[in-house]
Amino acid sequence: MASISTAKRSSETKEFPNWLEMPDELMAKILQRLGTVEILKSSRKDILKTLTKKAVDLSCGELIDISILGFGNDELLDHIVLRQWVD
User: Fold this and answer.
1) What is the 3-state secondary structure (H, E, C) of the chain?
2) Integer angstrom CA distances of residue 19 from 7, 30, 85
3) Taking Cα atoms as reference points, which of 36, 22, 35 lies closest to residue 80?
4) Nearest alpha carbon to residue 64 among 76, 80, 77, 44
């Protein structure tokens, strides 16, 4: 009698990289190549706020337009406003 394999498929055990551990220089290069919409659509909801803060920080006060509808809160809005006044 043939045994039934209980091994999981590789797609079921795939781990996702922790994008927040990426070096700032590499994150900046990626963000420069991607548009804001692509960045936020491709990320998971639990890191949207962190990625948005990172994008705002990398804008160096030059942010023109941003939408935080659906995931933003007062803390994120405060961060965006305060970073626009940094020298």
Assistant:
1) CCCCCCCCCCCCCCCCCCHHHCCHHHHHHHHHHCCHHHHHHHCCHHHHHHHHHHHHHHCCCCCCCCCCCCCCCHHHHHHHHHHCCCC
2) 28, 11, 27
3) 36
4) 80
Could you read off the pLDDT of 21-60 as tens digits, one per residue?
A: 888 888 888 777 777 667 666 666 677 888 889 889 988 8
Question: In the block, which residue shows the tokens 């781990």?
Answer: 15
CB atoms inside a 10 Å sphere around CB 82: 10
What tokens appear for 19 in the block?
């994008």
Residue with tokens 């290069």: 29
Q: What is the structure's pLDDT at 76?
A: 92
> What are the distances in angstroms from CA 40 to CA 9, 18, 21, 87?
29, 15, 17, 26
